[in-house]
Amino acid sequence: MSGRTAHVIVVGNEKGGCGKTTVSMHLAVGLLRMGFKVGCIDLDHRQQSLGRYFANRRAWMERSKIDLPTPVMVVMQPSSAELKAQAVAQEKAGLTALLDHLSGQCDFVVIDCPGSDVALARHAHVHADTLITPINDSLLDLDLLGRLDPVSWELNAAGVYANLVWELRRERRQAHRSGIDWLVTRSRLSALTDRNKQKMAEILPRMSKVLGFRLSDGFGERVIYRYLFLWGLTVLDMEQAGISMGTSKSNQSAREEVIALLHALWLPRVNERLDRL
Asked: Which residue windows are coiled coil (predicted)?
């Protein structure tokens, strides 16, 4: 890894349905539109959500004759080894080799992890320069980060995912002598204010100081994020897309959310190029 030049961004969380693929897709396209070379790796060989997203993008480009920025996209395939230990070793070695290869041609590599605790996802975390963890704005999702007292709302213990990140951070420091910048984002935010939303706003900043992550708003609960999948598009493509999606206030707000997340990530050479979006 000492000779690697690409900045590795891992989008991970052990819970499904929190918006990891949506974040990965918009992040990759945002970086491409700023002029960076980007590689993407989908570790979920079964669902292949990010791989399918970019496949839809290539299909729409061919159909509409519109040239959209597209990364180098790779879906990791599972090992065919019969022994589990051998399969895990082969998959880890394959991911390391792929990262080394993409680093030679990319400025950034975005890795979309499955919503479960698998060895390959853990190995990806060890390679992360930046880790993004989207969580839905609910106490159920919050439990993966920390266990709360139901009366005092104080943090009793780290959750299973926070413990995993702590363990993998230590492994990374031992292997690579560098840490992981961990950003937790609140996804699917509702425009309405309720008690749950207020509690999340109170608890997460306190929790971040103990568990060692930075905090940022993510993407709101907007139809446009789900609507664009079939075309392989993002909210950053709407002016060039070739389909009528309107210019509503909600769609403009979605675009601003993506730019705000890119700004919050503190990625090298990114903030100076945000005006290109």
From this structure: none
Quote the CA–CA distance of 120 and 211 in Å, as a whole number. Answer: 23
Chain position carrying tokens 């090298």: 268
Helix axes 49-64, 20-33, angle to 10 degrees: 50
Contacts 24+ apart (CB under 8 A), 45-48: 45/75, 45/76, 45/77, 45/78, 46/114, 47/114, 48/75
Tens digits of residue pLDDT in 215-225: 998 898 888 88
Three-state DSSP at 86 gives helix
Render pLDDT for 167-199 as a digit per residue (tens, 0 to 9).
Answer: 999 999 887 778 899 999 988 766 556 677 788
Which alpha helices (DSSP H) does the chain contain, by range? 20-33, 49-64, 84-103, 119-126, 139-142, 160-176, 195-211, 223-227, 249-264
Residue type, 134: P
Q: Say if CB 126 and CB 14 are below 8 A apart.
A: no
* pTM, two decimal places: 0.93
Domain ranges of the chain: 7-276
Grouping H, G, I as helix, E, B as strand and the rest as coil, residue 160 is helix
| Domain over 7-276 is classified CATH 3.40.50.300 | yes
Report the candidate in 47, 187, 54, 66 with the shortest Cα–Cα distance to residue 110: 54
